[in-house]
Amino acid sequence: MKINYIVKIILLIIASCLPVYAAAKNIILMIGDGMGTPYLSALRYYQATSTSSNTTTIFDSMGVGMIRTNPVGKFKVTDSAAGGTALATGEKTENGRIGISANMQPLESVLKVAKKNGLKTGVVVTSSITDATPASFLTTNSSRKNQNEIAYSYIQQIMDNQPAFDVLLGGGQEYFEKNSLMKTELKPNKHFHYATVFTELNIKDHRPEIGVFSEKGLPFAVDNREPSLSAMTSYALQKLQNKDGFFLLVESSQIDWCGHMNDIVCAVNEMKDFAKTVELVKQFVNNHSDSLLVITADHSTGGLTIGSERGKYWNPSVIDKIHASGEKISKALISSNNNPKNWLKYSDLPLNKQQWAEVERYKKRNDQLKLRRYLNHLISLTTNTGWTTESHTGEDVPVFAYGDHATMFHGFYDNTEIGIRLKKIIMADNIN
Fold it and tell me: Looking at residue 218, what DSSP letter applies?
């Protein structure tokens, strides 16, 4: 009897030394795909064009740490599949893999843990919903390239009565409607609601809801994206609210795409759009004290620098003089018989004789890719923006947290800790 009493005392002492977590009712994880720290600086400099000095951004007051982003493999730079898998599951993997470990074992994402623990779950992205980051939270696959299989796995989850999500919004119609694996699954049925127009969503429909509003990714923010990231996020927040709480992933997917194209106008507009959505979610947390917001990136893209070898300055005032992405402008110029008129439709910047000659040269070759690169390069010269690559870079990226349990995300640590710590919060009732 005395031994049992001593054992109980020892166990109580050990328990008192362990960290205690209490479940946050609602968790929103926001990922700026490709959003390294220079993108945050670009947003601040840009916002300062309308004030007398550098200004703060919505992110500044919430900064709590940094994370390492490397995947499995010495000196490797991560892709979005390995980066997304690390954030989603708390375990590193090799580039290209979706929710599968380096030794090819399926991993459980924080979203699936949330679902198992009775939370509603949702995903909102501006890419295809089958792209690497959302897929890492929703399913498993040996390759991010298998987007038809990934789309089918979402439907299969529903048909097996084990959906990982309650609402799933973004682009990607192609991977559903032209998918030979689907057969008849997309026909109207009692199991889920499938919508291709934002206004067709039904907040009162309690079935799993899939909204895909473009063939692949949604348009860029600077190209007048509809629906906007904030509109989709607002809908998801309303759809998911319930007495037991929810987990919502929101990804600003195309910061990364603009970085790949070295398109500073596109990138800053994506950052503006993401910041607007962060403001919306932060206000939700203010109104729901039992909620947690965590914001981070999977990696940085493009090797963006504010300033270049041309001097110690950056000129963001140029950004508002360009009214479309380099991709959209180059397509318009290639297909147009009146280049000056089309250029002025999208830009308030004049081109000189030599620059027009270059435009005409690419047009004659019908080389839209090189024309896009050339136009983006001109804008980078005018703004004094630097780029080192059209690929990803390996630097550490920031972490922001706000609300219930935000202090759990303070510090410098590995990207896997995001998934690990979110799982601990969700499973708090099971571990205390």
Answer: P
Q: What is the DSSP letter of 298?
A: S
Q: How many CB atoms lie within 10 A of CB 157?
A: 19
Which pair of tokens denotes residue 372?
């896009």
Does pLDDT of 18 surpass 90? Answer: no
199: its two tokens:
């206004």
The residues, ordered by sequence, that sit 6+ positions from 51 with a Cβ below 8 Å of its Cβ are: none
Q: Could you tell me the pTM of the whole model?
A: 0.93
Residue 301 pairs in a beta bridge with 392
CA-derived radius of gyration, the chain: 23
CB 232 within 8 A of CB 214: no
Identify the helix (H) or strand (E) that includes residue 125: strand 120-128
Q: Judge whether 172 and 129 are in contact, CB under 8 Å.
A: yes
Q: Rounded to whole angstroms, how far apart are CA atoms 127 and 214?
A: 9
Active site amino acids? 80
| Alpha carbon 237 to chain centroid, angstroms | 17
At residue 222, φ and ψ (nearest 5 deg) are -65, -20
pLDDT digits (tens, 9 = 90+) for 352-364: 999 999 999 999 9
Burial class (CB in 10 A: 0-12, 13-18, 19+), 215: middle
Which of 5, 35, 111, 155 is closest to 396 using CA atoms?
Answer: 35
8 A C-beta contact, residue 409 and residue 421: yes
Mean pLDDT of 321-331: 96
Please state the separation of Cα 201 from the chain's center in Å. 22
